[in-house]
Amino acid sequence: MDRRPTSHDVAHRAGVSQSTVSMVFTGRSGISEATRDKVLRAAAELHYRPNLAARSMRTQRTGRLAVVVPIATMNPLTLLSGAIAAARDEGYVVEVVSLPDDAEEREGRLSELVDSGQYEGVLAFTPLPFTDTTGGGPIVLSVGEFDDAMHMTGEFTDSRPITEMIERLATQGHRRFIHLAGAPDFPSARARRDAYLETIDRLGLESLGVTAGDWSGEAGEEAIDALPDDAPPLAVIAANDVIATGAIRAATRRGWRLPHEVAVTGWDDHHQSAFLVPSLTSVAQDRERLGAYSMHRLVAAVRRGEPPVKPDGLLTIVWRESTESPQRLP
């Protein structure tokens, strides 16, 4: 097809009326999920994109959504990709908007964004001075995955994997632990520290302490270097993979065998963690699926529909060689 596909082409491909296609892309109710999915699938196959200007004049809808996220770090990128893909699947165009660091300037910029009339909804992964999910202008939904200091919070502070890792290591015979906790001004670091302390106390295990530093490999090295020579056998619970990598380096330099004498866990499941020696047990965070879920929440609010069901398994432990039971090693 050389010309740009139209809604009539989508209707023909999907086997529905053109008005049904229009209802799907304007978010109107009364369309079954099966029909909506059929229309969206046909639109994707034809690479169809609705005419936003014509739609806006007819329906007062712009077909545009905005995403507000701190883009100064790498972490939000998978959140963004998941959110953008979900919005496009629903027939929306997405624009990513950055806000100033200053709180007062941020509020003014957000007000301009909302009052511009360009967007049907605004999805924010940062705290906002106001939200509106009731109508009267664009829907503004803040899901709060970052705090005012742009530290990860929200779903990312779920610390249950720390408990699960300690419990499994305890069943392997580990009785002595240490937690390399990362920067204490991060909500995620505090949550993991609290989970560590609670689990150690509940299981009656020995703790060599909780170190507070930063998120660097040097912090991991320094913590292990400071331990006495008789520290092993030991399980090291690191707050991220970078700290864990420093801990592995320091333990190896001291002649401690991993994982026979020292087990190590991390968090974030960085790409290189699977290729360390030994490969690192870590916690994978499905940020892309979280971004998609957040966008589906916004779309549901814009269309006055039912909110989506929160997905399970956003955090998954990836078990690798660094925590293998010594009895299972050759």
Overall description:
It is built from eleven helices and ten strands. The protein has helices at residues 7-14, 18-25, 33-46, 52-59, 76-89, 103-115, 160-171, 187-203, 217-225, 241-253, 287-302; strands at 64-68, 93-97, 121-124, 139-142, 176-180, 206-211, 234-238, 262-265, 282-285, 315-318. α1 (7-14) packs across α2, α5 crosses α11 and α9 packs parallel to α10. The model is unreliable at 52-60 (pLDDT under 50).
Based on secondary structure, the structural category is alpha/beta
- Mean pLDDT, nearest integer? 81
Shape: elongated
Low-confidence stretches: 52-60
Q: What share of the residues lie within helices?
A: 40-55%
Separate helix tally: 11
Task: Name the strands of the widest sheet in spatial order.
Answer: 2-1-3-4
How much β-strand is present in the residues? 5-15%
H/E element sequence? HHHHEHEHEEHEHEHEHEEHE
The main sheet comes to: 4 strands, parallel
- Rg estimate, integer Å: 25 Å
Number of strands: 10
Oligomer: single chain
